[in-house]
Amino acid sequence: MASPKEFQASPPAFTIPIPYLIWNLYLEPLSALGGILAALYSPNSFLLLFTPTNSNNLELQLTGPLPPLEQLLLTQTLSLYALFVVLEAVLLHWVFYTPKLRSHAGIRVQIFTLVMWACLASDGFYMLSLWNMWRGQGAERLFWSPWLWGKNEWLTLAMTWVPLVQRVCFLMGVGVGKRGKLDGKSE
Q: Is the model's pTM score more than 0.85?
């Protein structure tokens, strides 16, 4: 295993642009926490967010306790949201704001990149689950047509598409300049 001095000797090839940091360290963890709270306090309404606005085929209870299978799936979704909060709001904040790591920019970039790969894998399966549910409801066209989206679609799909696209862009290097070139200074 490489020592911290070895990592320090080779600076990262790039810095992480501010928009990626703002989204992943603040906005997404806050929205995930909001999703957790919404699901805990109003599980039926929360689950309805995942259904197409004009869907009459899916029958979810609007009142009363959730059936065991829906409760299981909701709890698993909340565990995913909680993982995002821990990875982004806790781990990434620790990585970026711990004084001991300030001089190890390469390690910070590597950890950020690994977290983005992990979140992208989750985003992909989450999107697949939404697509399968919407396809089953006959809403394939709506899934791919933001101009037709209502409130539910914007809350569900936009909050899934935006992070997924943002992570793909970061991992492809979009907006990521060479060290010191993006913002005029080095980390």
A: no
